[in-house]
Fold each of these.
Amino acid sequence: QVQLVESGGGLVQAGGSLRLSCAASGDIRSISRMGWYRQAPGKQRELVASITSDGNTNYADSVKGRFTISRDSAKNTSYLQMNSLKPEDTFVYYCNALIVRSNGYGYQYWGQGTQVTVSS
């Protein structure tokens, strides 16, 4: 099995920063892509940022210049550094990873979600 465990969410004032972490563990041969999504109640989950095994990154327009995604391949961990936070960044944030397991097949996994609340 594979688990994604997130940490780092919380309450912060507008203009502040938070760093989210997502650690993958279990039956992992390789991780081709890691990403962060966010979701408001009753809304669709939306991509915030993603990073490939080659280090190529992609960001939602709303977070460009404020958020930075990175990964530590040796630790199977991704990070989302969030700066200049705004109240509209208040969501539940989910870690996502496309993982190749020992059987050679790729599977998509999600973390349990972590709440980020930005107060004005």
Amino acid sequence: QVQLVESGGGLVQPGGSLRLSCAASGSILSINFAAWYRQAPGKQRELVAHITSTSTIYYRDSVKGRFTISRDNAKNTVYLQMNSLKPEDTAFYYCNAHVQEVGRGVQYSYWGQGTQVTVSS
């Protein structure tokens, strides 16, 4: 019932910037928690950042000061602004959201299909 669609990935040179978007659609009452994960080839998926309904934010140490997570509740969209990108940021980036839907008593976790970010000169 809920779909998450990521966009904004691509190829960028080291030091460049990208802004990822994760748009949720469906019968959504609220997005209680949203996160960005990434997975590089041969590595486990790792949490990059998350934001709660009260805007409590977490960043993994390697992206602190470079990445910014934000949300637009009116648009049911979560963003990840990535600045000063490094080759080690290269990965497939996934959006995850815990959604309270209309007519459902509990929240469910949904994943987007992912978007590729490649940082290379």
